[in-house]
Amino acid sequence: MPNISSGPRVGLFVTCLADMFRPSVAFSTVKLLEQAGCKAEVPERQTCCGQPAFNSGDRKTTADIARQTIDAFDGYEYVVGPSGSCIGMLHYYPEVFAPSDSYYQRALELKNRSFEITSFLFDVIGMDSLQEQLRQLQFNHKVTYHDSCSGLRQLGIKQQPRQLLQQVQGVELEEMEEAETCCGFGGTFCVKYPEISNRMVSNKSEFISNTGAHTVLGGDLGCLLNMAGKLKREGKQVEARHIVEVLAGMTDTPAIGEADYGLAQQL
Amino acid sequence: MSRAEILGNIRRGLNRSEADTERQQAVQNRLACKPSNLIPQRAQLPAAEQVELFKTMASEAVSELIELDRFDQVPSACADWLSSQGIRELVSASNSELRELDWSPLAQQQIEKTERVAQAGDLASLTLSFAGIAETGTLMLHSGEQSPTTLNFLPDNHLVVLYRSAIVGVYEEAWKTLREKFGDTMPRTVNMITGPSRSADIEQKLQMGAHGPKKLVILLIND
Amino acid sequence: MQINTPFFKQRAHDALADANLQKALGNLKAGFPEKRAIAVSRMPEFEQLRDQGRDLKNHILEHLDLYLEEFERKVIENGGHVHWARTADDANRIILDICQQVDAKTVTKGKSMVTEEIGLNDFLEANGVQPVETDLGEYILQLRHDHPSHIIAPAIHLNLEDVSEAFHANHHRPKSSDPAVLMQEAREVLREKFVAADVGITGANFCVAETGSTIIVTNEGNGDLTQTLPKTHVVVTSIEKVVPTLEDMTLFLRLLARSATGQEFSVYNTLSSGPRREGDQDGPENFHVVLVDNGRSEMVGSEFQDMLRCIRCSACMNHCPVYGAVGGHSYGWVYPGPMGSVLTPQMIGIEKGGMLPNASTFCGKCESVCPVRIPLPKLMRHWREDEFEKHLQPKAARYGLAGWAFLAKRPALYKPYTRMASWMMKAWAGKNGRIRTLPLAGGWTDWRDMPAPQGKTFMQAWKEQQKAGGQQ
Questions:
Q1: Are B211 and C270 in contact (CB under 8 A)?
Q2: Which of A257, C93, C171, C406 fits C434 for a cystine, CB–CB 3.0-4.6 Å?
Q3: Which of 21-50 (A) contact C at CB < 8 A?
Q4: In degrees rounded to 5, what are phi and psi of residue B207?
Q5: C318 touches chain A (CB under 8 A)
Q6: Domain A136-259 has what CATH class?
Q7: Domains A4-119 and A136-259 share a fold
Q8: Known Pfam families for this protein (chain B) (predicted)?
Q9: How far is CA C111 from the centre of its chain?
Q10: Which residue of B has its CA nearest to C78?
């Protein structure tokens, strides 16, 4: 095992959806960070990245939450989270403050040390340090990968998850049609314009199932909840997981939206 | 009224006054120096390769190419092409160059040649191209006393003479040549034409021959 | 044109249920994005061209007043006339006036979105001048008393059968369902119109200050016949279309066709520089340019200035998943898709246009294909800020946001709340792992299941784990 104490101190940005819906995604992220030699910590004062306020036009609330997040992650060498969308929001913080605001510089500086997890592993840590561990993993399934919008277009995440995934034994990656097209989640969009959102996720569901994949993977829980919810509603047999679950070898939990047989036994 | 309001609004928005010499200088400089923007590598080629690129791109745009060794072969080439289409008439631009050719090959195939502007119902026209642009296989024509614009658009078939030596790599070179010829005042119209008319307005499926010529034939003279 | 933008949701609902429209929209992807991708791949410098396009437009906007004056000076020097129209009404009156001066009965029209914006056709018709649209798509729409649903493919919402019926009803010829026959039919019918028209009205893709030229970019050749055959040519365009030189126009031409139709170059790129010259055998005797403002000059210096870079290529709507789902008519006014979602509130007011900038997932695809790199999602967000400040958003959304914000700003309250919410949803789901109906979340559960939370929140589980670790 790498020496944990000597590695960089990384603040985990948990994200609301991982916190509430799928803690296993955050645990997987912690595990990956530790395997990469980092000391992962979870700042207590974090809540949400502020995206709902930002995209609803509420600049004041956005700035309040941005200040809170900047303070919470002060002093960490890196800030890493399992979402291109939420980390992308951290990258918007400089836009929220006037250059004269004392938080403006701190926002810029936070932006420069904030990374989405697959980008952090691939671009910052580097494949050389990860290959050995990833190659010990097994995931004997055909998978397809959905590129979430913010990660793809704002942060340039495309090859990183695929490169990491291909180190895992047994993974067969089959690209879907329009992998880069929005799934229709869009935060509050999916409830403000449910019918349009439904059309978009219906298309996505079809493209996913056309690949014949056993599992659809992605890097953002918002999209994954949306896609999994649609696949389940349509009775399709495709499972949905966050990519970190596969990369951390933590696929023993039920997939997103799957029945929790463990719980049934407990009850 | 409107003019002053619009310009006033713009200046207010920019927070600049009319008598802003710095901005005026910038504008005059750009208009005088006409700096080129990025010019794609594609067409920055030796002359011979430019011609090849022109031919490739013109064919891709569904222009027909007929290569001739000499200018005086134009009448027989026109006669042959028109006969192959069953066309018995040709409306020509009134260029002195074209006029001075020996047009007997047309008469031999009972094809009537006239010089005038185009009319609805004309089947074929013949004009002379000012330049060919290799980058996209584009012809550049301009209006003038001897070259009515209607000939480029109204007839069903458009035959255009292009000298190999008039082929340039990129649009920018054609603008330079045009300025050399016309100075500060442009001809009334400059037409850049890349293939025959087409439309995809019905179900996004491309159909050739919408309102302009259904066929564009380039008579390329290897001078 | 009637404003139906406030009914966006209902129109989108109808559009999604309209099988014919959905079939027609299915043509979009092969028609545009796939062709653009090929054209871009053949031009290795395309991204640099986009950078230059953005920078050059920014330069123009910083000097817009001066370039407009230069353009005007040169048009007059060429023997043309320039008219400035502050509003749509001003523009319509100017154009009618020109038509009446030459006693015009019919005018032919090349494709022009600015004339849609000002509602020119209805105005001319009401004043005894008959406009005839000559672009094939626009012509089809005029026969059907319909409006464009796309800025360069106006009839994209129609199928072959619709065209076939419209032609049969109007042309009194045998009904055909062969697109080639239909196009030939339009060609023949419109040829008479071109020749008979007193005035030809076109738009302009760019206005060149250096030469006083306007340029139109078309594939059909209708614009050229429109502007060459009648005695009077009127160019109706807007103030942001001016470019300094022919070289600068060239940069935008390299971007335009590739972004729009995925062509290397459109078939006809035609410069018009004034009326017929002495000795010319054809061409218009009168040349007018109408420069329309209609709200644009107010965008200069505002947070929406970037929108004035738009060259109307349609790439944003061609790639937009929302446009692809609901089509252009859902947007309820002239400009659809992402560019319309930014422009429409400017032109009809945010009170009526607010639906549009909200109807976006901010997926960013539009910005990623924009030839002049307009940050469309950011501009849509600016409209949402405007709405927020004016309290225009629905009450439920505002209170929901305020409640969430209250918690998100208070970590000590946020944590127990999320713990409780996760627990409740988990309990509601039972052992199914998903929820089929959830009170207050019908927007979600009407259409898809809600995957259930795993149980504890991460913050809770992490704390417990740390504590246990500490005890070891």
A1: no
A2: A257
A3: 21-24, 26-27, 42, 44-48, 50
A4: -120, 135
A5: no
A6: alpha beta
A7: yes
A8: LUD_dom
A9: 14
A10: B185
| Residues of A whose CB is below 8 A from C325 | 196, 199-200
Residues of chain C neighbouring B135 (CB-CB closer than 8 A): 265
Judged by a CB distance cut-off of 8 A, whether residue C169 touches chain A is: no
The C-alpha atoms of residue C310 and residue A62 are separated, in whole angstroms, by 29
Rounded to two decimals, what is the model's pTM? 0.96
Put simply, the answer to whether B203 touches C179 (Cβ < 8 Å) is yes
Architecture field, domain A4-119: 3-Layer(aba) Sandwich (3.40)
Contacts 24+ apart (CB under 8 A), B30-33: B30/C59, B30/C244, B30/C245, B30/C248, B31/C70, B31/C209, B31/C210, B31/C244, B31/C245
Cβ contacts of A141 within 8 Å, gap of 6 or more: A170, A171, A172, A213, A214, A215
Q: Do chains A and C touch (3 or more CB pairs under 8 A)?
A: yes
| Cβ–Cβ below 8 Å for C432 and A259 | yes
Tens digit of pLDDT per residue, chain C (472 long)?
A: 899 999 999 999 999 999 999 999 999 988 899 999 999 999 999 999 999 999 999 999 999 999 999 999 999 999 999 999 999 999 999 999 999 999 999 999 999 999 999 999 999 999 999 999 999 999 999 999 999 999 999 999 999 999 999 999 999 999 999 999 999 999 999 999 999 999 999 999 999 999 999 999 999 999 999 999 999 999 999 999 999 999 999 999 999 999 999 999 999 999 999 999 999 999 999 999 999 999 999 999 999 999 999 999 999 999 999 999 999 999 999 999 999 999 999 999 999 999 999 999 999 999 999 999 999 999 999 999 999 999 999 998 999 999 999 999 999 999 999 999 999 999 999 888 999 998 878 889 999 999 999 999 999 999 999 999 865 4
Is the ipTM of this structure higher than 0.90? yes
Report, at the CATH architecture level, how domain C32-298 is classified. Answer: 3-Layer(aba) Sandwich (3.40)
Chain A CB contacts of C453 under 8 Å are: 20-22
> C365 and chain A: CB distance < 8 Å anywhere?
yes
Question: How far apart are the two ends of chain B, measured CA to CA in Å?
Answer: 57
Residue B80 tokens read as 């042959």
CB-based contact, A177 to chain C, within 8 Å: no
